[in-house]
Design goal:
Layout (H helix, E strand, L loop, with lengths): L2 H12 L32 E3 L11 E8 L5 E5 L7 H10 L6 E3 L1
Parallel strand pairs: 3-4
Antiparallel strand pairs: 1-2, 2-3
């Protein structure tokens, strides 16, 4: 694939931003700081939900989605953790029993 084809495909993808399902959890005040990038948000329908910690708003939130790959299984796409979200990241790994297939973006 040549460079112009890659640029064209990127432009087509960039135009689709925001056309996915909602991103409600990622825009809540107590979750905004957990997103590495303001324009890369998890899709609500498939986001990884952490076990909620009582009395801590947003404790179930991490910027990550479960992506199914047909009948062969699934993997998790996640942003690289920020210093403030290291604990959440490793909690996700533990709770989701992730032995492999975490893709960071």
């Amino acid at each position: 694939m040549d460079e112009s084809a890659v640029r064209e495909e990127y432009q087509q993808l960039a135009q689709k931003t925001g056309q996915c399902s909602n991103h409600d959890s990622s825009t809540l005040v107590y979750n905004k700081s957990k997103n590495r990038y303001v324009d890369v948000l998890p899709v609500e329908d498939t986001r990884v939900k952490l076990e909620e910690i009582p009395d801590i708003p947003g404790s179930d939130y991490i910027n990550a989605n479960i992506v199914s790959i047909g009948d062969t299984g699934a993997f998790i796409c996640s942003q690289a953790p920020l210093p403030a979200t290291f604990e959440d990241f490793w909690r996700m790994v533990w709770e989701q029993v992730c032995l492999e297939f975490i893709i960071m973006y």
